[in-house]
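From the pipeline queue, job 12 of 40. The input is one protein chain; the requested action is below.

Action: predict structure.
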Amino acid sequence: MLHFIKYNLIGVINTLITLIVVWILHQQLDWNLEISNFLGFVIGGVNSYIVNRLWNFKSTNEKRSEMIRFLVIFIFAYLLNLGVLEAVKATLAPGGTFVSFANIFAPYVKPGYIAHVIANVVYVIASFSLYKCWVFKERKVN
């Protein structure tokens, strides 16, 4: 149970890092949403690997192969996130399915940021499952 709590705490910290980076780059500096999203995930991903390896999973696996597995899952989960981001962004755009939903938050945040938050939830669920089951799973040393 402690392992699960630690993983989720790290996930919350990584999510906050990602959200803050995207908030600064997209919301405040008006950078492109996809670039802001990518940079937020890269910074959160680096933190995720380091803290999960050292503190949560206390991995003794060979670093190179573990980093490769981490990168594979990171890219997969990021591409999943990007697909959800684009789909939600399209539904919140003018003429989109949920444009009235986006208008509720319009005085406070851009629709793209709302799309980012929703896509981030999908990313967290997918990456948690795959990191736990494949990346940081203890490997037997021969």
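Job complete. The two ends are 29 Å apart (CA to CA).
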